[in-house]
Amino acid sequence: MQRLLSTDNLVRIALFAASSTSVVIVALIFAFLFREAFPFLRDPGVGELAGTRWMPTSMQRQSFGVLPLITGSLLVTFLASLLAVPFGICGAVYISEVARPVEREFLKPFVEILAGIPSVVLGFFGLVAVVPLVKSVFHLGSGLSALSAAVVLGLMALPTIISISEDAIRGVPDAYREASLALGANRITTIWRVVVPAALPGITAAVMLGFGRVIGETMGVMMVSGNAAQIAFSPFESVRTMTATIAAEMGEVVFGGVHYRALFCVGLLLLAATFALNMIAQRVMKRYQNR
Amino acid sequence: MRTSLSLLALGLTIAVAGCGSPAGSRAAMIQIKGSDTMIHLTSAWAQEYSAAHADVEVAVTGGGSGTGVSAMLNGSTDICMSSRDLSESERSAAEGLGLDVQQFDVALDGIAVVVHPSNPINALTIDQIADIYTGRITNWSVVGGPDRPIVLLSRESNSGTYAFFQEHVLDKEDYATSARLLPATSAIIQSVGEDAGAIGYVGLGYAEEAGDRVKVIGVKADETAQPVVPTLDTVRSGAYPIARALHFYTARVPEAHVQAFIDYCLSPEGQETVKREGYVPIG
């Protein structure tokens, strides 16, 4: 009894409770989403979700094909990472390896400020600045496109990628750098062939977390992507993402109706996607650590 | 992660909305929610009314007609603003809940079709507008304009204007999948003003407020008819074909303080506000 109530044990129990809360919450979310989505999977059926038309308010025939939404989310996420990953990693390398202390003191707060800007503000910035810019640079009919959304999302993912990559790069032992330099490698070679590979697990985690931010982002993307539910593979087309669909339509649906259930199916897909992303990130990190 | 968090938040919102009791524990509070088209107008009414009745507080929020109807059904608003009639499913949902829904027509509104100021088109027939919005016409040259792709702009599907336009202009057909659905009327004005090939539709009040940034085109009922531009007079006389009544809905016969506010809106003074805000008075 004495031992059971020792400070050690009490702290242990408290910490265990705290750390399992998130597990419980995730499980509850899965269960709740599934419960709301399940009737849809039975009645119109999974086949309905596989369709290519998302027309939930059609007065002819409602259709709930989520393919346009999935391709929309994928296209925007892919483009955003194409922009944010190279920028983010180069930025992190510069800040941690090359920048003088003065520069670092100047750069780091700005990265943190960028991280703190609310997404609706970035979305508004996107609407008045990025959209017209994309339109005039590429001579488009309208700048409300996947590319504009990707630029805004890239801005949102950038701070995540930079700060976590930077931590990883900084964590590489100095002995690696010294050994490389001692072997006659110059600074650039040392950075790209020794330091960055050594920090790769952390950088991978950074990229995956950035992905997570991008795929789950709603407000910013909703304001600039144009939200047309079409299957598109061009960055200049308008696309509708899964998140924007839920946000835009959840307010008007009849609770318990088919449309409501369909939106929960979309939510389930989204959750599964982020879950998978996290699993992959952990796998990758583990593999590199074991090497 | 973020997604799970936002979904959790969504879940909580629904839970909270589900058990929310009708606002009005304080007799002097009126909650109004719904149509973004009506938010300017209702806010103006609310301001004037509160100025004259210091003991009454009127809170107006938007979100779209559908949002307002949902809020009314689950009891989280006293008055629902809606720019469309209740749908069949909403009516049966209300019946299922045992509600005695009351409808008040508080103003009329014309829906203006707007294009970029540089667009030489001055008028379209209803059929042409329908063909454009359903995706059968994709280039301005087909309707006598320059050879330029049409950029379709629409409101989101939770908008009453979206539903009204679909029912009365598109004849219940589906919007083209290439239509860009924008979350707010102001975004439509912004984009139409920006893109030379764009076409959009907005409430008359917004079109007038936008001034020279967009061009309001005339609408012809058919090929031979004269084009009619939406104005106060043409909407009231019924000459302008894309017009509708704007409604207040309440879940049951309103309490005295809510009824007093609705009476104010319908009074000559309230209808004067309607005119000033760019909508069309009733009667």
Rg over CA atoms of chain A: 23 Å
| Helicity range of chain A | over 70%
Q: How does the overall form of chain B come out from the CA principal axes? A: globular
- Biggest sheet strand order of chain A reads 1-2
CATH superfamily of the domain at 70-252 in chain A: MetI-like
Name the beta content range of chain A: under 5%
- State the distance separating the first and last CA atoms of chain A: 45 Å
**From the structure provided, what is the oligomeric state, counting identical versus distinct chains?**
heterodimer
Low-confidence segments of chain B:
1-26
Order of helices and strands of chain B: HEHEHEHEEHEHEHEHEHEHH
- How far the N terminus sits from the C terminus of chain B, by CA atoms, comes to 54 Å
Separate helix tally of chain A:
11
Count of alpha/pi helices of chain B:
11
**CATH topology tier name of the largest domain in chain B:** D-Maltodextrin-Binding Protein, domain 2
Instruction: Provide the low-confidence segments of chain A as ranges.
Output: none
**Main sheet overview of chain A:** 2 strands, antiparallel
Architecture overview:
The complex is a heterodimer of chains A (291) and B (283). With 291 residues, chain A is an all-alpha fold. Chain A has helices spanning 7-49, 67-98, 101-116, 119-138, 146-170, 174-182, 187-198, 200-216, 219-224, 242-250, 258-290, and strands spanning 54-55, 63-64. The mean pLDDT of chain A is 88. In chain A, strands 1-2 form a two-stranded antiparallel ribbon. The two termini of chain A are 45 Å apart. The radius of gyration of chain A is 23 Å and the shape is globular. Chain B has 283 residues and is of the alpha/beta class. Chain B has two domains: 5-108 and 245-276, D-Maltodextrin-Binding Protein, domain 2, CATH 3.40.190.10; 109-237, Periplasmic binding protein-like II (D-Maltodextrin-Binding Protein, domain 2). Chain B is built from eleven helices and ten strands. Chain B has helices spanning 2-19, 39-52, 65-73, 88-96, 126-134, 160-168, 185-194, 204-210, 232-237, 256-266, 268-276, and strands spanning 29-34, 57-61, 79-82, 102-115, 123-125, 151-155, 180-182, 198-203, 215-220, 243-250. In chain B, strands 1, 2, 3, 4, 5, 6, 7, 8, 9 and 10 form a ten-stranded mixed beta sheet that branches. In chain B, strand 6, helix 6 (160-168) and strand 7 form a beta-alpha-beta unit. Chain B is globular. Mean pLDDT of chain B is 86; it is low at 1-26. At the A-B interface, helix 1, helix 4, helix 8, helix 10 and helix 11 of A face helix 1, helix 3, helix 4, helix 6 and strand 7 of B.
